[in-house]
Each structure stands twice: as C-alpha cells, then as structure tokens.
Design brief:
It contains two helices and 14 strands, in the order αβββββββαβββββββ. With 209 residues, the chain is mainly beta. Strands 10-7-13-14 form a four-stranded mixed β-sheet, with no helix packed on it. A four-stranded antiparallel β-sheet has the order 9-8-11-12, with no helix packed on it. Strand 8 and strand 9 (129-133) form a beta hairpin. The relative contact order is 0.15.
C-alpha cells in the first residue's frame, strides 16, 4: 500500500506513513495545509538539549559552541561569550584574561503572559555581585569557582516600584555538584511591586542550554 499524500510505501500493519505521518486511509489534504505540518520539526530544532559538562583536573569544560557568562575576577566586568575550544579556560572579553572554574549554574526565566512581568528587568546576583540581566524566556549559564555561593535575583528600579529581592539559595560547587539549575518565576501582584521566585530544578529542564 502506498501513502495517499507522499506516495511512499507503507508496510503491512502500519497505521501511519513513516515518511510524512499521514494515517492509512486518510483523504488527500488541501495543499494549503502542507506548511503547517512542516512547522513542528523546525521549532524543535531550535531548542538545544542539555549536554553535561566534562571535568579536567577539577575544572569544568562546557560543550563546544555553548554560551556562558562570567564575572572576571581581575577587571570585574560581566562577560558573555561562546565556548570555542575544549579547554577549562574561559576568557574575559574585556581584559582577555582566562580563568578556570569548578562548575556551572543554569538559570531560566520562565515566560509570563502578563506584559508587565515580561518587561520587568531582573539582575542575577551571586555573592552580592551582579552577574548581568536575565530577560524574559532567556536561559543563562554562569561559570563559578569551587566553594560556597549565595545565588539570588533582584529587580531593577522601575518607578513607582522599589527594587525587590528574590529568595536566595546557598549552593556548593565542587566535583560532586558541578552543575546546578534554577527556574525563575515572576510573581504578579495587583497594584503592588512584582516579585521574583527561584526554584531549583534539574539541568535537563533548562531549555536552549
């Protein structure tokens, strides 16, 4: 039996065409419906699956081509770049010096349907240092040294509202815990300042990272 849509051979016992997914016995669909059937795989290919990092002498190596963010220990600037080799070094884009790190923390700011929440400016804070902004539906990978860190978030001043600090987590980065992940939710409050909430999750739950 051949598929009524693409003409491919359908093996006995199959209920769908293995090439285009058309059910056996289906009527030929109008040509206009073809683009809709092509959208799903295109959208899926835009999401990067989580790839566990490797370790070398106690230092983390993230997969080639993945984005990362650091705060340079030397010039203290926030630097965001793409991993271009398989070494433990992560160079600062401002001063050019490279440092090794013991682990990573992944953050994802969950999308919100309320415009005021989506436009809210939120900074990531680690050990009291601002690690740059995280925008609506953005995923961020931050490299950290071995040891104990305090991670949280704070909203930027937005008149007439004052800055709001999220709940904070104490994390320990080391050989046994080199990849930690958090989801960030914006809490909408009617006629009051919006809040920020962090929840720990599995690294595999962070999209495009």
């Amino acid at each position: 039996m051949n598929c009524v849509k693409c003409g491919s051979l359908i093996a006995d016992g199959n209920n769908f065409c293995m090439i285009c997914g058309t059910p056996v016995g289906a009527q030929v669909q109008p040509q206009a419906s073809a683009p809709v059937q092509q959208q799903a795989p295109i959208a899926a290919s835009q999401t990067l699956p989580y790839a566990p990092p490797a370790m070398q002498d106690g230092n983390i190596i993230i997969p080639f081509g993945r984005k990362y963010r650091i705060v340079c220990p030397d010039c203290h600037s926030v630097s965001e770049d793409i991993k271009r080799d398989q070494t433990p070094g992560f160079p600062c884009r401002s001063c050019g010096k490279a440092y090794a790190y013991g682990g990573q923390v992944l953050l994802y700011r969950c999308g919100m349907g309320i415009p005021s929440c989506g436009l809210l400016h939120v900074d990531i804070t680690i050990d009291g240092v601002v690690y740059g902004e995280i925008t609506n539906t953005e995923s961020v990978r931050i490299l950290l040294s071995n040891g104990t860190h305090i991670i949280g978030a704070v909203t930027k001043p937005n008149w007439p509202y004052s800055p709001v600090t999220s709940n904070q987590f104490q994390i320990v980065v080391g050989p046994q815990s080199n990849s930690l992940a958090f989801k960030m939710n914006i809490i909408y409050r009617y006629r009051a300042s919006n809040g920020v909430e962090l929840k720990q999750c599995n690294p595999e739950e962070i999209p495009n990272i």
